[in-house]
Amino acid sequence: MQAALYLSQLKEGGVICRRGDDARRVLNATSTYALAQEAIAAGTSLAAVIETHGLGDAVDLNALAAAGKLDCPVRHPDPAHMHLTGTGLTHLGSAATRDAMHAKAKSGDEEQLTDSMKMFRMGLEGGKPAAGQEGVQPEWFYKGTGVAAVASGDALESPAFALDGGEEPEIAGFYVIGADGKPYRLGFTVANEFSDHVTERINYLYLAHSKLRPASFGAELLIGELPDDIQGTSRILRNGEVLWQKPFLSGEANMSHTIANLEHHHFKYALFRQPGDLHVHMFGTATLSFADGIRVEEGDVFEIDAPQLGLPLRNPLQRGERPATEVVGL
């Protein structure tokens, strides 16, 4: 069985391809986005385009990551055409949590269920439709444009007005819209869907506010199908020591929705099928340090490690300055 294929992008320009321990630069490749456009135009796969380009000398990928030279694995040349979005209430969680959720979702008066529990139950009942059928819509949220996409190693900035800044370990799918208006999936990375959980807890109608934060993406893009069972570890480091850590599960075996159903309900909107646009869609989580009472501080480091998706994702927390928001009339 051939080893999985991963792509990374250098901040200075250029693409690295890795299989197993062998990492090499892709010859005459300026960016992953450009390679994707080549593949779409040729009606072939990313792997085939990379084979056509050929590979150069071996590189030390870990050293490049440690030096902060690796960017998000895909970026659009115009950040305004890179869209960060996601879905929530899509994961089953641990066995105990799953049992509790199933029991609560299947008993009691409908009016006694929270809106979140109702949405979760809808996913349990209709998130994995039979072939040819449309599944239930998930919860959906907007994160921002490419200006909010952060590379591994760079700081995740929490705004001065934020009440919290916490991690959400997730899987993200990367997609380019072809000239024909069809979405083409490039692959998957590990992601930190950084959010303000204190603001969200005030009232669920504040969810939209709580999500308008940066998000970070692992340095490596897994090309091809997503493994059915993703197992990783989410941890927080403070002064080099582990403050908190917990395993997390993802992949369809641990979800109440199929990836195809989540993709369908995002790309059914014409707004998200504009030729040339790049979409990064995050698929949800079931593990949060906030749920365990952890309060992060500036300088803490988030680390999300899912080996099936490549190198670990690490980002320090940074507090932003208060912005000037006064509107000037013209």
Q: Briefly note the structural class of the backbone.
A: alpha+beta
Number of helix segments?
8
Outline: globular
> Uncertain segments of ≥5 residues (pLDDT<50)?
94-102
Beta-strand residue percentage: 25-35%
State the helicity in percent bands.
10-25%
Order of helices and strands: EEEHHEHEHHEEEEEHHEEEEHEEE
Number of E-state strands: 17
Can you summarize the main beta sheet? 12 strands, mixed
Radius of gyration: 20 Å
> Span between N and C termini?
64 Å
Mean pLDDT reading: 92
Please describe what this structure looks like.
By secondary structure, this protein is an alpha+beta fold. Helix content is about 20%, strand content about 30%. Strands 1, 2, 3, 4, 5, 6, 7, 9, 10, 11, 12 and 15 form a twelve-stranded mixed sheet that branches. The chain has a five-stranded mixed sheet with strand order 8-17-16-13-14, with no helix packed on it. Strand 13 (about 230-240) and strand 14 form a beta hairpin. Residues about 95-100 have low confidence and may be disordered.
